[in-house]
Amino acid sequence: MTRAELIRQIKEKRSFLCVGLDTDLTKIPQHLLDDEDPIYSFNKAIIEATADLCVAYKPNIAFYECYGVKGWESLQKTWAALPKDCFSIADAKRGDIGNTSGRYAKAFFDEQASGLGFDSITIAPYMGKDSVTPFLEFGDKWAIVLALTSNAGSLDFQNFENNAGLQLFEQVIDKVNTWGTPDNLMYVVGATRGEAFLKIREHAPDHFLLVPGVGAQGGSLEDVCRYGMNKDCGLLVNSTRAIIYASQGRDFAERARAEALSLQKEMEKELLKAGIIS
Ligand SMILES: O=C(O)c1cc(=O)[nH]c(=O)n1[C@@H]1O[C@H](COP(=O)(O)O)[C@@H](O)[C@H]1O
């Protein structure tokens, strides 16, 4: 999906919501466990209940690969069930020497080879240029590079300052900016980082940011928008557990929809406030 198509979706749906699909057999409703593929049944119901309210879906690959071959099958079926107007994110956090990154790109982008044709993949940039650029050589596919993450451990490394007073996440963005463009690169910035979005926008004014951490991790959507929104919106805000596990009963899809709708309504207000939609 191109940047222009993504922006059009945001305006049409009045939403920049990304629904996470971190589907855990111990958390999904019990009655689905008798299905042939409970993970797929759950995801399909969540997708059908939320497709008009969100612009992206993000399956976290760990929740599939932990079940081996069956998990990969559930992932493939889930990817195939994603609405074509939604941006798809393989949250795989890959990155290795160039030769190996090329294979990871094939695994998640090349539908002919793997059965998976995600629009984008999350990347850990620690190994540098040759570990990231193979993901940027696949037509209109995107690399979403970790910059400032939402977890407590993010401050173990990501805020180290160099002699010029730049924190590591700022240096990462400056460097990675030279490998791609706002048409094929996004950055991950945790919603729990509030005012840090001001700094992020000094280094990446035009890029889209994937923002996990609202909902279960307590990040503020209002702060994310206040400090992080740009003229095209420039945000994909993810919520996973707060949506998909809103209920563990038979009404799970209905309750997931209600949670997604409440976020979409808040997002619509922010888009109106910023003059991005009218
Ligand atoms: O790259 C990510 O998606 C990610 C980066 C980050 O900084 N923090 C973070 O929580 N995530 C992912 O975003 C999702 C957050 O899920 P919830 O906390 O349930 O909304 C999980 O799949 C995490 O792996």
Automatic annotation (TrEMBL):
UniProt keyword Lyase, yes or no: yes
E.C. code: 4.1.1.23
Presence of keyword Lyase: yes
GO-annotated molecular function: orotidine-5'-phosphate decarboxylase activity
Record keywords: Decarboxylase, Lyase, Pyrimidine biosynthesis
GO biological process: 'de novo' pyrimidine nucleobase biosynthetic process; 'de novo' UMP biosynthetic process
Enzyme class: lyase
Pathway: Pyrimidine metabolism; UMP biosynthesis via de novo pathway; UMP from orotate: step 2/2
Domain called Orotidine 5'-phosphate decarboxylase: residue spans: 16-256
InterPro entries: Aldolase_TIM, OMPdecase_type-2, OMPdeCOase_dom, RibuloseP-bd_barrel
Pfam family, one: OMPdecase
Domain of life of the source: Bacteria
Cited Gene3D superfamilies: Aldolase class I
Enzymatic reactions: orotidine 5'-phosphate + H(+) = UMP + CO2
Family to which the UniProt record says this protein belongs: Belongs to the OMP decarboxylase family. Type 2 subfamily.
PANTHER family per the UniProt record, alphabetical: OROTIDINE 5'-PHOSPHATE DECARBOXYLASE
UniProt-recorded name of the protein: Orotidine-5'-phosphate decarboxylase
Species the sequence originates in: Sphingobacterium thalpophilum
Gene that this polypeptide is encoded by: pyrF
